[in-house]
Design brief:
By secondary structure, the chain is of the alpha+beta class. The chain is built from two helices and two strands. Strands 1-2 form a two-stranded antiparallel sheet.
Length: 64
């Protein structure tokens, strides 16, 4: 996939950056595609799921 230079510059996408492709469906068909920088996606997942995982771990008494 080729992204125009203007878009890459606005999104601060550099050569070698890894991007995740996310899709949204409506009525069983893909209606939207979104590219997210993998490093940013990782930060979002950690900040949102980290507290949930920590709480579950504490409630289990530290058992895995």
């Amino acid at each position: 996939m080729v992204l125009p230079k203007e878009i890459r510059e606005k999104a601060k996408i550099r050569p070698g950056d890894k991007l995740a492709l996310l899709s949204l469906e409506k009525d069983g068909a893909v209606c939207c595609l979104s590219l997210i920088n993998v490093a940013e996606l990782e930060k979002m997942v950690k900040s949102n799921l980290g507290p949930v995982i920590n709480e579950a771990f504490q409630q289990s008494g530290g058992r895995t």
